[in-house]
Amino acid sequence: MIPMLAVLRIERERRRALRLWLPLFLFWLLALPIAAVTLPVVAIVLLAYRRNPLRLFAAYWELLSAASGTHLEMQRRHASVYLHVY
Amino acid sequence: MSENRRRILEMLANGRINAGEAERLLSALDNGPNVEAAPARSFGNSKYLRILVERQPERAGDEETKVNIRVPLQLLRAGVKLKSLLPDEARDQLNEALREKGVAFDVNQFKAENLDALLENLNDLTIDIDKKSRKAKVRMFCE
Questions:
Q1: Which residue in B6, B61, B80, B101 has the most C-beta neighbors within 10 A?
Q2: Are residue B38 and residue B52 in the same domain, yes or no?
Q3: In which domain, by residue range, is B67 found?
């Protein structure tokens, strides 16, 4: 399943921590009409270069679907960044 | 309890190997000299590649940096698949850019099946970096 939510947390000393819940599903909803318009153009360009557009789209979809579970965390004494993709 | 036996049991407890594999490893351990020929642990159950970086402070008073990254293995596999769809010119440019950075690596030779072998060999790899006064430890393992 494609990522639906990302949590970003930035903490800095003596500053208010920033905690963001990013609803990615809203982004996908917005991106859908743009994709519907651009994908046929991309497909034509790929066919011109003798590339199979279906294989490419499938690979991109797989890449997107696999992004769930990605986790990044960086800690220093005065600041830390946390990102998790659900 | 020997160090090897303890490590096998820890791997079993962490879910990195299953009971059958633990049994095989323990029996190989009991057989003494054949311990080196014991089967490698299964890589199939791993879902993520974990990269841990710890950098020691450069000077007294500097900060220690810790980085913890977890990448789904499926993401890496999908990335390798995507690579195969790149036009030849783009791959050549990528190879050239890598060569300029001092990395003698041919992306054309890298296939999806090589990734598992690469990760299996990288598994539980620890690199100690000691450059001038900067010290860092990079640890990679699959989980």
A1: B80
A2: no
A3: 46-142
Residue B41 predicted with pLDDT over 70: no
Helix (H) or strand (E) holding A7: strand A5-12
- The answer to whether the pTM exceeds 0.80 is no
Residue A58 in tokens: 């499938």
CB contact under 8 A, A63 and B75: yes
Q: Do B70 and A62 touch (CB under 8 A)?
A: no
pLDDT digits (tens, 9 = 90+) for B46-62: 788 888 888 877 666 67
Residues in chain A whose beta carbon is closer than 8 A to a beta carbon of chain B? Answer: 49, 51-52, 55-56, 59-60, 62-63, 65-78
In chain B, the residue whose alpha carbon lies closest to the alpha carbon of A71 is: B70
Task: Please check whether residues B16 and B2 belong to one and the same domain.
Answer: yes
Residue B124 burial (CB count, 10 A): 11
CB-CB contact of A66 with B78 (8 Å): yes
For A71, which of B69, B77, B79 is closest by C-beta distance? B69
Which chain A residue lies closest to B65 (C-alpha atoms)? A76
